[in-house]
Amino acid sequence: MTRSEDRLTAAFLLVALVALFGGVLTGFFQAIEHAGVDVYPSTPIVKSYYHSLTLHGVLNVLVWTTFFICGFVPFLTTRALGTRLARPGLAWLTFWLMLGGLLLAAIPLVGNAATVMFTFYPPLKAHWAFYVGLTLVVVGTWLVTLNLALTWRAWRRQHPGERTPLAAFMGLVTFAMWTLASLGLAAEMLVMLIPWSLGLIAGTDALLGRALFWFTGHPIVYFWLLPAYMSWYTLAPRQAGGKLFSDPLARTSFILFLVLSTPLGFHHQYTDPGIQIGWKLVHAFLTFAVFFPSLLTFFNVVASLESGARARGGRGWVAWVARLPWGDPSLAAQVLAMLLFAFGGIGGLINASYNLNLIVHNTAWIVGHLHLTVGTAVTLTFMGVSYWLVPYLAGRALWSRRLALVQVWSWFVGMIVFSNTLHRLGLMGMPRRTMIGAAPYVLPEWKALLPLVGIGGTLLFLSSVLFFLNLVLTLVVSRAPAPAVPAFAEALSGPDHAPAILDRWRPWLALAVVLIAIAYGPTLVRLALTTPFNTPGLRVW
Amino acid sequence: MATRKGTTVYLYELAWILPSFAIPVGMLVALVVTAFGAGIHLPGLERRIDPTKVAETPPFDKPGLVELAPGRYEVRMTAQIWSFAPREIRVPAGSTVRFWVTSKDVVHGLLIPKANVNLMLLPGQVAFAEARFDTPGEYLMMCHEYCGIAHHTMAGTVIVEARR
Ligand code: HEM
Ligand SMILES: [Cu+2]
Ligand SMILES: [Cu+2]
Question: Predicted ipTM?
Answer without folding.
Answer: 0.93
